[in-house]
Design brief:
The chain folds into 3 domains: 71 residues, Arc Repressor Mutant, subunit A (Orthogonal Bundle), CATH 1.10.10.10; 129 residues, Aspartate Aminotransferase, domain 1 (Alpha-Beta Complex); 224 residues, 3-Layer(aba) Sandwich (Aspartate Aminotransferase, domain 2), CATH 3.40.640.10. It has 478 residues and is an alpha/beta fold. It has an 8-stranded mixed β-sheet with strand order 4-11-10-9-8-5-6-7, with helices on both faces. The longest helix is centred in the C-terminal third of the chain and has 27 residues. Helix 1 packs across helix 3. It is elongated, with a radius of gyration of 30 Å. 43% of the residues lie in helices and 14% in strands. The structure holds pyridoxal-5'-phosphate (PLP).
């Protein structure tokens, strides 16, 4: 049983007033309810009755309680709102700020996966546990002591990782660079965030692919950017559309995901890459090349990066560890002119003092280890296997009801549904049947498209997942 502390600097009556106020605010004594008599409280707290009278007087002066002769002391109803202590209006804060909430379908998918982890997941854009190099990374972590110094790291990124990336970019992406032109980020997502927040201003016009991963990121709208569409066909965007948008809207930057694009899987053709680079260098327009998927090309020959073909320094290159190794390490990188790297590293310093040293050490060691090459080989084979399982299941279950272009790399499969079903209804029905996928409108397309990510589900789940989806779809058509 609580009693006031006789050694406290606070007087006994103040302690009692605080204690009673707290119990009232926790709802133990709701507005209008009767408090125990002064005498009883004095006994309970082991104090004189006059001390309780003083505590009541204090609460009365704050409008928290009211006393009437003959009817005891009650928690105030009329003056309850006048109490000087209030809980902040958190819901108003939660709706405030300039950063927009995530898209409703994405929130719904996250919520469904949290509540039911047994859902077959064709929505999360990442590798399944068996595709990730978990054992190799565990061996490296066992061999290397991560204890050198656990202080703040250079916000541009740890030097050994940037050095490892210089070799990686040269060997795998044909990009010649130096560690001073590399910024390490918390996934490529943070590169996009830094670009939209620090290099562009509210009101600026930018061009993004349609459909595009960028539409799934309200961060573009949060930065106040005006978005203009570059339609994507199976060979990527049409370079001439960039010139048209530039003339019409003075676009300031172009965002492209040219290799096995999210969500369509499209690969920008080599001929279009050349024309695109000619056009942007003629206009002096920067291009962001978001390139997380190139090393998943199933034939083992990654497409040329725009950055490696860029002779005018117009390309900001973004890479990531997420789709080739481990999304949870949160390792991404940007290759950019030094002035840009310095500006963004300075922003990192203000935001979070840079990325944790441990994942940077792990990623650097993995990239330089003998494990990396064989891991990529295995990953490509297994991804292609999963893609084929998906196609086989779709053909078996939904032949004639879907259209698609077979991707030659990446982890996503874009499907047009021939029957027209509203996105939200299809998602809810799919969840009921036990699967999640992403409705196409999340990526800016019209209703009637679906993105299936085939890397996240286990191989043995794919056929079952598609049969559940087919059941959901057929149920809605009939
Ligand atoms: C095209 C593209 N860019 C960037 C990202 C962000 O990935 P991360 O931040 O894990 O590197 C994704 C993730 O799905 C993506 O598909």
């Amino acid at each position: 049983m609580w009693k006031p502390d006789r050694n406290s600097k606070k007087t006994l009556y103040e302690q009692i007033a605080d204690y009673l106020e707290q119990r009232i605010s926790y709802g133990e004594f709701p507005p209008g309810s009767l408090l125990p008599p002064e005498r009883k409280l004095a006994e309970q707290f082991d104090v004189n009755r006059s001390t309780v009278i003083s505590a009541f007087a204090e609460l009365r002066s704050m409008g928290i309680i009211e006393s009437r002769i003959g009817s005891g002391t009650r928690v105030s109803t009329s003056k309850w709102g006048a109490t000087p202590k209030h809980t902040p209006n958190w819901s108003r804060f939660a709706e405030g700020g300039s950063f927009l909430p995530n898209l409703p379908f994405l929130r719904r998918i996250r919520e469904a996966l949290t509540h039911n982890p047994t859902l077959i997941d064709f929505a999360s854009g990442e590798l399944s546990a068996d595709l990730a190099p978990t054992n190799e990374i565990a061996v490296l972590m066992g061999k290397n002591a991560y204890t050198s110094y656990l202080g703040y790291v250079n916000p541009q990124g740890a030097t050994p990782l940037r050095e490892a990336l210089v070799d990686y970019l040269n060997n795998y992406r044909g990009i010649r660079t130096t560690e001073s032109s590399i910024l390490i980020t918390s996934g490529s997502q943070q590169s996009l965030f830094l670009i939209t927040q620090c290099l562009l201003s509210p009101g600026d016009a930018v061009a993004i692919e349609d459909p595009s991963y960028c539409y799934s990121l309200p961060m573009f709208q949060s930065a106040g950017l005006r978005l203009f569409r570059l339609p994507v066909d199976k060979h990527g965007v049409q370079p001439e559309d960039i010139r048209t948008l530039y003339k019409k809207h003075r676009i300031k930057m172009v965002f492209l995901n040219p290799n096995y694009q999210n969500p369509t899987g499209a690969l920008l053709s080599e001929e279009r890459r050349k024309r695109l680079l000619d056009i942007i260098s003629e206009l002096g327009l920067p291009v962001v090349e978001d390139d997380p998927y190139s090393l998943t090309s199933y034939d083992g020959i990654p497409p040329l990066s725009l950055k490696s073909m860029d002779t005018t320094g117009s390309v900001l290159y973004i890479g990531s560890f997420s789709k080739i190794a481990a999304s949870g390490l949160r390792i991404g990188w940007m290759v950019a002119p030094r002035s840009i790297v310095e500006r963004l590293a300075d922003a990192r310093q203000q935001m979070d003092f840079g990325l944790s040293i441990i994942p940077q050490q792990v990623a650097g060691q993995f990239l330089q280890s003998d494990y990396f090459g064989p891991h990529l080989e295995r990953l490509r084979i297994q991804l292609q296997f999963k893609r084929d399982l998906l196609i086989e299941s779709l053909e078996k279950e939904l032949s004639g009801l879907i259209e698609y272009v077979v991707p030659a790399g990446g982890i996503h499969f874009w499907c047009k549904l021939i029957p027209s079903i509203p996105d939200g209804i299809l998602l809810e029905e799919s969840i009921k049947k036990g699967i999640v996928m992403v409705p196409g409108s999340v990526y800016g397309s019209d209703s009637g498209y679906v993105r299936f990510t085939f890397a996240r589900a286990k191989s043995e789940e794919i056929a079952l997942g598609i049969s559940r989806f087919a059941e959901a779809l057929r149920g809605l058509i009939e």
